[in-house]
């Protein structure tokens, strides 16, 4: 894909940030953004394993992400967008609470910023087609 064909800017879901080194950059938008929610998930990562080597890898990933990105905040606009995201998911018959809630917070930030979401898990964002473009890698 040429630069002329790539999306100018998009939000990377946590799944993409985790695998960023193995993803062809031409599959990504020209300018990438992450959310404060993704940074929180990355910060939890080193503490979510008992394997010292994996914890170290996750800490390294967190530090690289912190150095590379200025995350989009969950602000008032995102809070308002979350209402629409939540409503859309519930109307589709899916659950909007539990583990999915984190993905929906990421989606709300993308909706508020009017940016597509790049993810390796498009199913996490099912039922949001009317609110945000979801690009699965």
Mean pLDDT: 93
**Percentage of residues in DSSP E strands:** 5-15%
As laid out across the biggest beta sheet, the strand order is 2-1-3-4
Number of strands: 4
Encode the helix/strand succession as letters. EHEHHHHEE
Biggest sheet record? 4 strands, parallel
Q: Helix count, per DSSP?
A: 5
Helix proportion range: 40-55%
**pLDDT < 50 stretches:** none
Shape: globular
Distance between the termini: 14 Å
Rg estimate, integer Å:
15 Å
How would you characterize this protein structure?
- By secondary structure, the chain is α/β, with parallel strands linked by helices.
- The protein has helices at 14-18, 36-44, 52-68, 76-91, 100-113; strands at 9-12, 31-33, 117-119, 134-136.
- The longest helix is centred in the middle third of the chain and has 17 residues, at 52-68.
Write the layout of secondary structure elements.
Elements lengths: L8 E4 L1 H5 L12 E3 L2 H9 L7 H17 L7 H16 L8 H14 L3 E3 L14 E3 L1
Parallel strand pairs: 1-2, 1-3, 3-4
Helix pairs in contact: 4-5
């Amino acid at each position: 894909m040429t630069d002329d064909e790539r999306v100018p800017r998009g939000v990377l879901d946590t799944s993409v940030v985790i695998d960023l080194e193995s993803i062809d950059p031409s599959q990504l938008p020209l300018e990438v953004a992450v959310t404060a929610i993704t940074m929180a998930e990355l910060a939890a990562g080193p503490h979510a394993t008992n394997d010292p080597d994996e914890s170290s890898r996750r800490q390294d990933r967190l530090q690289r992400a912190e150095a590379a990105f200025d995350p989009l905040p969950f602000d008032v606009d995102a809070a308002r967008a979350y209402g629409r995201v939540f409503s859309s998911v519930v109307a589709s018959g899916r659950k909007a609470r539990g583990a999915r809630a984190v993905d929906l917070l990421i989606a709300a930030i993308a909706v508020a910023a009017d940016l597509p979401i790049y993810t390796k898990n498009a199913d996490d964002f099912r039922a949001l087609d009317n609110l945000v473009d979801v690009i699965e890698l």
